[in-house]
């Protein structure tokens, strides 16, 4: 899952980014609305965590601009103003959810998970291919009834492969979906992660390589 955080508070933004990365998300962080819009136009995000009061480009304007993208990302709006009128106005701008500051990090995670379980194309909570099952809600993987322990990045790559429903994904597609903008493509992070993932899942590997195309779970 790839997220964009647009938050100008110097301590809160990096704190949210670190916490979400520990949850297995690929996270890009910007601190003003203008840069946030530039990132959103370059990359495809599952969800944008958007502070309402932003320098450069106000969060309300950025929220409206995000509605013009294809695909339109989910938007979770953050604000120090938590009145009913503020919430109604934020949702009216196109936000999918609204969270007033201060908030508990675990509530933020729960809201993000709830929103991304309801994408524009509805996907089931359980992703199943053969004897391999990934529970998107619980963030757990089993194969043949055996629980498989995965690192967050390995889980993110497997989730993207299973969501593809038998279609191959290139290394570039996986890099764009499971890593943030700071990833070094020349270090072959996708190949290294797939190797670790195959080892964790065991033989025979459910992940096949299609030369010149990418990876697939058929």
TrEMBL record:
Any Gene Ontology biological process: regulation of DNA-templated transcription
A GO term, aspect molecular function: phosphorelay response regulator activity
Residue ranges of domain OmpR/PhoB-type in the record: 124-218
Gene3D superfamilies the UniProt entry points to: 3.40.50.2300, 6.10.250.690, Winged helix-like DNA-binding domain superfamily/Winged helix DNA-binding domain
Domain Response regulatory intervals: 2-116
DNA-binding region range list: 124-218
Keyword DNA-binding: yes
PANTHER family the record matches: REGULATOR OF RPOS, TRANSCRIPTIONAL REGULATORY PROTEIN CUTR
Protein name: Two component transcriptional regulator, winged helix family
Organism: Conexibacter woesei (strain DSM 14684 / CCUG 47730 / CIP 108061 / JCM 11494 / NBRC 100937 / ID131577)
């Amino acid at each position: 899952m790839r997220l964009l955080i647009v938050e100008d508070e110097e301590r809160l933004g990096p704190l949210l980014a670190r916490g979400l990365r520990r949850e297995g998300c690929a996270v890009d962080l910007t601190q003003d609305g203008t840069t946030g819009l530039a990132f959103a136009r370059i990359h495809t995000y599952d969800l944008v965590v958007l502070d309402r009061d932003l320098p450069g480009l106000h969060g309300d304007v950025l929220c409206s601009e995000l509605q013009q993208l294809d695909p339109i990302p989910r938007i979770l709006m953050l604000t120090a103003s938590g009145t009913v009128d503020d919430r109604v106005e934020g949702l009216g701008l196109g936000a999918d959810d609204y969270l007033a500051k201060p908030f508990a990090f675990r509530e933020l995670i729960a809201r993000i998970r709830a929103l991304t379980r309801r994408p524009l194309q509805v996907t089931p909570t359980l992703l199943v291919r053969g004897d391999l099952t990934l529970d998107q809600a619980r963030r757990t993987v089993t194969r043949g009834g055996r629980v498989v322990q995965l690192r967050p990045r390995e889980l993110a790559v497997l989730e993207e492969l299973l969501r593809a429903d038998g279609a191959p994904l290139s290394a570039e597609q996986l890099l764009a979906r499971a890593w943030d903008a700071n990833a070094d493509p020349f270090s072959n992070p996708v190949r290294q992660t797939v190797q670790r993932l195959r080892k964790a899942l065991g033989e025979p590997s459910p992940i096949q390589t299609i030369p010149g195309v990418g990876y697939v779970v058929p």
